[in-house]
Amino acid sequence: MTAKTAALVTGAASGIGECVARRFAADDRHEVVACLDLDPAVHDLRDDIGPSVHPYECDVADHDAVGDVVQQVEADADILSVVNNAGTSRYFWIGDLEPDEWDRILDVNLTGQYNVARHATPPMFEREAGSVVNVSSGAGQRGSASGGVHYSAAKAGVFGLTKGLAKQLGPHVTVNCVVPGLIDTPLMSESGLWDAAGIAEFEETLPLERVGDPDEVARVIEFCCGPGASYMTGSVVNVDGGGSLS
Question: Which GO terms describe its molecular function (predicted)?
Answer without folding.
Answer: oxidoreductase activity
